[in-house]
């Protein structure tokens, strides 16, 4: 249906809900690239005013991507929990913002509400929120998941140790793992982005991770971030797969461009669970997402990139994942142009994921062709830690030498623990103390060149 | 006394180009490391904007025994290229005309719908002209005898500027190639501002998705060696011709002794 809004002398017409949401979205280069953003600053605010008056119930009847042709829409609509939705069913999008910020919406109410929310509702309300609103509400959301460590407990922030190497060299990867563990990182996962897609090489990396984790009884999980079909093949071949990884997006067509559909994700989950490798839980899917991936695959249906990102979370939550993170600045300046846009998108993604009930972490990152730098990452890291982000990346020196982008470092997580006070996953925190890596206060302890990790994994005293 | 707490595992740093054993001041990065990082970032930023020296690259490629053509994408400038990837995937009008002229100059055009050649090769600037400048011609030198051994026919090598990976689809289609290999500068990293990637697409035509390509990435001095990349590409091509596809359905099982770099990095956006 058509939406209209007047603002003083001006009046604006929006063709449908997708158009209204696109025009209400804070400025970003990807929506401009798609030709769907607001034409002026005034139009953007008019769209937000109009969106604020749309009843939440409208989202149940007006799909932004057609139900008939898109299995993600069908997943979202068919999985909607009307009973959980009831407490907010009478609200408009604007009223929903007020409710979320109010004392009427404590952590328990938000957790109960999650199955009743559609990604499009969450995206819509985020467009009416300032950065502080996104931080405040996300901080109230509680989502905990478990495999060998517990991710997402209040007051904690985990770190994915990301020991990538340009040629998957085992000694090089091990060196980064040791460095990261000795900096207190790795409670979310030790996750390698492989340079290779060769199944033998991938199997070798999985065995490397399995060996490190079991030799030192580290309460964490390993992951080689390869295509879900490769993980399934590796499981069939007997490789020690903890987490099953996949990049996902918010439309069926974008997922097809990743070479996946919902059926293969179900297969991946079943294959992973068949191994029974989790000790305290069986959340084992690891998803990565990012605004702009659908447009990049020419599969956006005229819907803005932030709404489609929220729909990717709608996909993720059907698979009870251990970890979900947006790789917020990875995609490049054609989607998020500069530090300001990356920071805004990071806060939106975290808010939307958490409100939908996901253990949302963030790869706080940028590429060298974007107008951003490490100062912007410091800002976003600090904001997300305050917002209660489930986990962030730990990349040696913030420089990923395989993927060629900059993320957050082992040092960055130390910094943010100092200033915000967030702790590690409890099982991992205890392990670090037991290994003498940290003291009772969680800070790094004194260094020894003869630490068992150094002697055991690198074969020599450094 | 220095406030820097050193990490007593500095010897591990020789095992990886990753920034490990940096030491710390409290929770933070020591001054020297912070400045080294800033310098590397400044250089990578600069690398994005240096234009490809087309004549120099084309000359080097011809010296390896290939013919060359040069085209530009529809992106009119570097800034436009960075925010409009759609333009970088399309040929400029001049580029389209140049390829059409080549196709119509063929002595015996094949029947409609039949391929004119086995392989089209595109050498593209992508996001790092430095990578293309340094590694494209040497990689083609490694490929030439392997291509000859397989008996594959090739079109002239197309040197493309302001180009994204998918420009290869338009080029391969215009040239009537059974497959296209795009050698392209990858987004520059701090430690590797000159990394080359090769994207292979069977039956190229406009509109192919990234899931329909195979990629060999991280080709540079400290990364994947040229000879390994060439061997891998030929293995993938041979499989692609037999199985009539590329992409996620074509897994690399070449099992070479060297561990190589095959598929697109996770969630990567091709340049």
Automatic annotation (TrEMBL), chain A:
Its EC number is 4.3.1.7. GO terms for biological process: amino acid metabolic process; ethanolamine catabolic process. Pathway: Amine and polyamine degradation; ethanolamine degradation. Its cofactor is adenosylcob(III)alamin. It comes from the Bacteria. Substrate binds at residues 160-162, 193, 288, 363. This is Ethanolamine ammonia-lyase large subunit. It comes from Chelatococcus reniformis. The lineage of its organism: Bacteria, Pseudomonadati, Pseudomonadota, Alphaproteobacteria, Hyphomicrobiales.
From TrEMBL, chain B:
The keyword Lyase applies. It comes from Chelatococcus reniformis. Its main location: other. Its cofactor is adenosylcob(III)alamin. Transmembrane segments: none annotated. One of its GO terms (molecular function) is ethanolamine ammonia-lyase activity. The lineage of its organism: Bacteria, Pseudomonadati, Pseudomonadota, Alphaproteobacteria, Hyphomicrobiales. It is an enzyme of class 4 (lyase). It is found in: Bacterial microcompartment. Belongs to the EutC family. Pathway: Amine and polyamine degradation; ethanolamine degradation. One of its GO terms (biological process) is amino acid metabolic process. HAMAP family: EutC (MF_00601). Keywords: Bacterial microcompartment, Cobalamin, Cobalt, Lyase. Pfam families: EutC (PF05985). Binds between the large and small subunits. The basic unit is a heterodimer which dimerizes to form tetramers. The heterotetramers trimerize; 6 large subunits form a core ring with 6 small subunits projecting outwards. InterPro entries: EutC, EutC_C, EutC_N. This is Ethanolamine ammonia-lyase small subunit. PANTHER family: ETHANOLAMINE AMMONIA-LYASE LIGHT CHAIN (PTHR39330), ETHANOLAMINE AMMONIA-LYASE SMALL SUBUNIT (PTHR39330:SF1).
């Amino acid at each position: 249906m058509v939406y209209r809004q007047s603002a003083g002398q001006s009046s604006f017409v929006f063709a449908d809900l997708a158009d209204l949401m696109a025009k209400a979205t804070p400025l970003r280069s990807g929506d401009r690239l798609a030709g769907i953003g607001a034409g002026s600053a005034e139009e953007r605010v008019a769209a937000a005013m109009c969106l604020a008056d749309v009843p939440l119930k409208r989202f149940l009847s007006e799909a932004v991507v057609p139900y008939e042709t898109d299995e993600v829409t069908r997943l979202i609509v068919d999985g909607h929990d009307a009973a959980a939705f009831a407490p907010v069913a009478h609200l408009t999008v604007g009223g929903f913002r007020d409710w979320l910020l109010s004392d009427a919406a404590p952590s328990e109410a938000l957790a109960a509400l999650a199955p009743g929310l559609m990604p499009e509702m969450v995206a819509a309300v985020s467009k009416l929120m300032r950065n502080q609103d996104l931080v405040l509400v996300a901080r109230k959301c509680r989502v905990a998941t478990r495999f060998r460590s517990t991710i997402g407990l209040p007051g904690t922030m985990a770190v994915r140790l990301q020991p990538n190497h340009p040629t998957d060299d085992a000694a090089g990867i091990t060196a980064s793992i040791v460095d990261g563990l000795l900096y207190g990182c790795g409670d979310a996962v030790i996750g390698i982005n492989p340079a290779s897609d060769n199944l033998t090489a991938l199997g070798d990396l999985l065995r490397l991770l399995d060996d490190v984790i079991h030799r030192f009884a580290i309460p964490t999980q390993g992951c080689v971030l390869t295509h879900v079909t490769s993980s399934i093949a590796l499981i069939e071949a007997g490789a020690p797969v903890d987490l099953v990884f996949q990049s996902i997006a918010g439309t069926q067509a974008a997922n097809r461009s990743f070479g996946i559909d919902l059926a293969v994700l179900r297969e991946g989950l079943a294959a992973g669970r068949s191994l029974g490798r989790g000790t305290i839980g069986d959340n084992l899917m690891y998803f990565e997402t990012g605004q702009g991936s659908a447009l990049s695959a020419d599969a956006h249906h005229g819907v803005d990139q932030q709404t489609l990102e929220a729909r990717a979370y709608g996909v993720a939550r059907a698979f009870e994942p251990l970890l979900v993170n947006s790789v917020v600045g990875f995609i490049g300046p054609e989607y998020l142009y500069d530090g300001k846009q990356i920071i805004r998108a990071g806060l939106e993604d975290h808010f939307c994921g958490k409100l939908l009930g996901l253990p949302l972490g963030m790869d706080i990152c940028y590429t060298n062709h974007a107008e951003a730098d490490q100062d912007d990452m410091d800002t976003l890291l600090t904001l997300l830690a305050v917002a209660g982000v489930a986990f962030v990346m730990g990349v040696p020196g913030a420089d990923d030498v395989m993927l060629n982008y900059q993320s957050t470092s082992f040092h960055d997580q130390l910094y943010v623990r100092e200033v915000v006070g967030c702790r590690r996953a409890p099982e991992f925190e205890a392990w670090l103390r037991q290994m003498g890596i940290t003291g009772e206060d969680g800070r790094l302890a004194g260094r020894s060149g003869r630490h068992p990790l150094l002697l055991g994994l690198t074969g020599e005293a450094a | 006394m220095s406030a820097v707490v050193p990490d007593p595992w500095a010897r591990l740093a020789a095992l990886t180009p990753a920034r490990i054993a940096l030491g710390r001041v409290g929770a933070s990065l020591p001054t020297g490391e912070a400045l080294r990082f800033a310098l590397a970032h400044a250089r990578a930023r600069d690398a994005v904007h240096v234009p490809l020296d087309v004549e120099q690259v084309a000359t080097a490629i011809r010296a390896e025994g290939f013919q060359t053509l040069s085209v530009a994408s529809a992106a009119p400038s570097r800034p436009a290229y960075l925010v409009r990837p759609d333009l970088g995937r399309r040929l400029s009008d001049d580029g389209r005309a140049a390829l059409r002229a080549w196709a119509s100059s063929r002595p015996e055009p094949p029947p409609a719908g039949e391929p004119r050649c086995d392989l089209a090769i595109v050498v593209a600037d992508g996001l790092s002209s430095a990578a293309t400048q340094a590694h494209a011609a040497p990689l083609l030198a490694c490929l030439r005898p392997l291509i000859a051994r397989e008996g594959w026919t090739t079109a002239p090598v197309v040197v493309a500027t302001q180009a994204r990976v998918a420009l290869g689809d338009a080029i391969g289609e215009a040239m009537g190639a059974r497959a296209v290999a795009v050698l392209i500068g990858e987004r520059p990293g701090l430690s590797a501002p000159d990394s080359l990637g090769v994207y292979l697409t069977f039956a190229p035509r406009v509109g192919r998705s990234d899931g329909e390509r195979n990629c060999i990435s991280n080709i540079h001095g400290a990364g994947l060696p040229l000879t390994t990349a060439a061997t891998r590409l030929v293995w993938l091509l041979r499989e692609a011709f037999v199985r009539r596809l590329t992409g996620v359905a074509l897994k690399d099982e070449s099992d070479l002794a060297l561990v190589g770099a095959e598929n697109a990095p996770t969630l990567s956006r091709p340049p």
